[in-house]
Fold this sequence. Notes:
By secondary structure, this protein is α+β, with helices and mostly antiparallel strands.
Amino acid sequence: xxxxxxxxxxxxxxxxxxxxxxxxxxxxxxxxxxxxxxxxxxxxxxxxxxxxxxxxxxxxxxxxxxxxxxxxxxxxxx
Length: 78
C-alpha cells in the first residue's frame, strides 16, 4: 500500500526526509491526522480473497496513540 494525495489534504509529512515516504494528510487543529492509502492490485485481490490488513506503528517506546482504520471514499488526485 502507498499513501496517496487526496482532495482536502492540507499537509505532507516527511516531505523532505528521503528515508521516509512522503505522507499526504489532513491535519485538524485538535491533533487528528488522516491519510489515505491505496492498495496495489495484488493487495486488493488478497483482501477480496479474505486476507487481513496489518498495521505497524513506530512508537519510539512511547504510549500508543488511539487509531482508527476505515474505508476511504476520497479518490486520489491524479
